[in-house]
Write a structure and sequence with these properties.
Strand content: 5-15%
Shape: globular
Strand order of the largest sheet: 5-4-3-8-9
Radius of gyration: 22 Å
Helix content: 40-55%
Order of helices and strands: HEEEHEEEEHEHEHHEEHEHEHEHEHHHH
Number of helices: 14
Largest sheet: 5 strands, parallel
Structural class: alpha/beta
Length: 354
């Protein structure tokens, strides 16, 4: 259902993108553009300026989000080292070197690989970054991702650094297409209260990409009501008093990681407990969009189904059956041949992500 809707919306977006262009108008709004030109000089989150004379032939990802992004943009053929732990269980290690022992980074393994570029998400410890730089390696450390825009920026930056700009732009465009589906589905929807349980009382407050993912998915975050910023602990009594309609948690635990008293809430009593793929919801990488869609499909199924039906009906009405005798599309500036090209292009994008 989700992938079908993605294709349908993508076709409609392709139609709208081509129409003004064919009419001689520019179409420069909303599209992400990056330039893969080398030599490349950039400054990272630590203030370090690094220079790449040419596109790197070997790359190491220090964190799961780095690895996920590299795979998503199609630069995995240059990935020679990555973490090997449950957070990368959906990525293929293959003959790549595991640069971790479970979740613990082993800097010596990275040094031994002597990569052209090391990608380090903000979660990387400063001492590890310094150790790798002292060994002569080029390390780019990303800013802390506090929003979906930050995730987009990280994707585009990874594309520039690896010389995979096309893949990065394609990935960001896919993210935006998915989020437009969500926006359409939630246009008139009410927003139930939700508690995001990370375990040991921790939750995601305002100023985090997880909080924005939840609000984008059409729920109100209990942590915001409680005044929690960043990642912090929330009192179980506060959760019970707020009485959320939903409990959402990463699926890396067999049971919902909530205090026993929270079992008295409406969410728990009604069975409104949603386990989300931990590798999607917990990492500032493109997979966060899949987590958002999962929440919408579960919490707002009727709205999502309605959006699907409307988009499908729109796609069927634009299939060329209403064209006039000249063979021109009912949409100005978008002929049958161009429509076919757009559909094929979109299909290729979706197929690549399977």
């Amino acid at each position: 259902m989700r992938r079908q809707l993605t294709v349908l919306l993508a076709v409609l977006l392709a139609v709208s993108a081509f129409a003004p262009a064919a009419a001689g108008q520019s179409n420069d709004g909303g599209e992400s553009t990056v330039d893969c030109e080398f030599p490349l000089e950039v400054t990272d989150a630590t203030g370090e300026t690094i220079t790449l004379e040419e596109a790197p032939e070997s790359v190491v990802a220090l964190q799961p989000s780095d690895a996920q992004t590299v795979f998503e943009i199609g630069a995995e053929d240059r990935l020679v080292g990555m973490p090997d732990n449950p957070a990368t269980s959906d990525l293929e290690l293959g003959d790549r070197t595991a640069v971790t022992d479970n979740y613990q980074l082993v800097p010596e393994r990275v040094v031994d690989l002597d990569p052209d570029l090391v990608l380090a998400a903000n979660a990387t410890e400063t001492q590890n970054v310094e150790q790798l730089r002292n060994a002569g390696l080029t390390v780019y450390q990303f800013d802390d991702a506090e929003s979906l825009d930050d995730v987009r920026d990280n994707v585009l930056t990874t594309g520039e650094l690896t010389g995979e700009c096309d893949g990065a732009e394609e990935t960001v465009d896919w993210m935006d297409e998915q989020l437009e589906i969500v926006e359409t589905a939630l246009e008139d929807a009410e927003r139930p209260l939700a508690y995001y349980a990370m375990g040991d009382g921790y939750t995601a407050g305002t100023g985090t990409f997880i909080h924005e993912a939840m609000t984008t998915a059409g729920v109100e975050n209990v942590a915001e009501r409680a005044g929690i910023e960043d990642y912090g602990t929330i009192n179980a009594e506060t959760v019970v008093d707020e009485n959320p309609d939903w409990i959402i948690h990463p699926d890396d635990r067999e049971e919902p990681p909530v205090h026993q008293s929270v079992q008295a809430t409406t969410a728990y009593q009604d069975g409104n407990v949603l386990a989300i793929d931990a590798n999607q919801i917990s990492q500032p990488a493109p997979g966060i969009v899949d987590a958002i869609v999962n929440i919408v499909e579960t919490v707002h199924p009727d709205a999502y189904e309605q959006a699907s039906d409307e988009l499908e009906a729109g796609a069927e009405s634009d299939d060329g059956s209403d064209d006039d005798a000249s063979g021109e599309s009912a949409i100005p500036g978008f002929g049958v041949a161009a429509a076919l090209v757009a559909v094929l292009a979109v299909s290729g994008i979706v197929a690549r992500r399977r």
